[in-house]
TrEMBL record:
Superkingdom: Eukaryota
Biological-process GO terms, alphabetical: cardiac muscle thin filament assembly
Protein name: Nebulin
Pfam family name, one: Nebulin
Encoding gene per record: NEB_2
Keywords: Actin-binding, Repeat
GO-annotated cellular components: Z disc
GO molecular function, a single term: actin filament binding
Species assigned in the record: Spheniscus mendiculus (Galapagos penguin)
């Protein structure tokens, strides 16, 4: 697989002054760590001069004097005792107010009474307040509130599992409506449906023609000598104008 490449490597010659080679050399010089620290290494070989009056030493001493707490407070120390207006600090309202504020803000003095008396309090472990606090802590504790259930593993052929599956199948809506799937997409006529039959029965009940039979449609033979017929004839003759 590499025989052809190995043969070409010995016959290819690239000129050293091509742009690609020059760019690669420039990039190698930029990323070279040896060239990056070359000036520093040469400066270390020459040694250094550490005189007491050197500029870096004098600069360091000046910086130390500026940052020194003694130099920082030197002006303040010189001005002590030269205040004008009050002989003592207690007579100055601002100093008195500052001292009072310092005492109020002093955390050690603020908690001194508590630290002196906290070791003198004795509370029995079975006190009602302690028991109530423990019960309250138990109620509001998230650790005791969340109790994860055990992950049970049941065999698929157990009787209770089989019974549960049958109950799920009976309650399942998909299984409940599975016998109607074959009706989906089939055409249906309303003739003979429950609503149509109910409407026809209601129409027959409300039909006046079927509810009442006309007298002329009834086949009968009237007897002429019945008492009511004879009485009707007599009445007709009495009220007749003729």
């Amino acid at each position: 697989y590499t025989e052809a490449w190995d043969a070409d490597k010995t016959s290819i010659h690239v000129m050293p002054d091509t742009p690609t080679i020059l760019l690669a050399k420039a990039n190698a010089a930029n990323v070279s760590h040896k060239l990056y620290i070359q000036a520093w290494e040469e400066a270390k070989k020459k040694g250094y001069d550490m005189r007491a009056d050197a500029i870096p030493i004098r600069s360091a001493k000046a910086s130390r004097d500026i940052a020194s707490d003694y130099k920082y407070k030197e002006t303040h120390e010189k001005q002590k005792g030269h205040y004008i207006g009050c002989q003592t600090a207690q007579e100055d309202p601002k100093l008195s107010w500052a001292a009072r504020a310092m005492l109020l803000q002093n955390d050690r003095l603020y908690r001194k009474a508590y630290h002196d008396s906290k070791a003198q309090v004795h509370i029995p472990v079975d006190a009602m307040s302690v028991q109530a606090a423990k019960e309250c802590q138990t109620l509001v504790s998230d650790v005791d509130y969340r109790q994860y259930l055990h992950q049970w593993t049941c065999l698929p052929d157990q009787n209770d599992v089989i019974h549960a599956r049958r109950a799920y199948d009976l309650q399942s809506d998909n299984v409940y409506k599975s016998d109607l799937e074959w009706l989906r997409g089939i055409g249906w006529l309303t003739e003979g449906s429950v609503d149509v039959v109910k409407a026809k029965k209601a129409q027959e009940l409300l039909n006046e023609r079927l509810y009442r039979t006309r007298p002329e449609e009834m086949k009968f033979t009237s007897i002429t000598d019945t008492p009511d017929v004879v009485q009707a004839k007599i009445n007709a003759l009495q009220i007749s104008d003729v």
